[in-house]
Design goal:
The protein is built from three helices and three strands. With about 80 residues, the protein is α+β, with helices and mostly antiparallel strands. α2 crosses α3.
Length: about 80
């Protein structure tokens, strides 16, 4: 998705929710930023992207709903 957004010259926003475990999130960050000596960095390189990803946003809590249909405040973290 990040490669597609970069090709279209738009900023990718990656949404993470409470469905993912902390371990899942850590693996994802390592996939994006880990060098090829890390397990997830090796996987990224094997998937065809040997360099680290840059230039994207993380969005946390975008679909965490609360009673009465209200939604949590969005938090954005820029990387790159």
């Amino acid at each position: 998705m990040i490669d597609l957004c970069n090709a279209l010259d738009i900023e990718p926003i990656i949404s993470l929710t409470r469905i993912q475990s902390p371990s899942d999130m850590a693996d994802f960050v390592e996939y994006l930023h880990g060098d090829t000596t890390t397990a997830m960095g090796k996987k990224r390189a094997a998937d065809g992207h040997p360099s680290k990803y840059e230039g994207y946003w993380f969005e946390l809590g975008t679909v965490d709903s609360f009673p009465f249909g209200s939604y949590s405040v969005r938090s954005f973290i820029e990387f790159g």
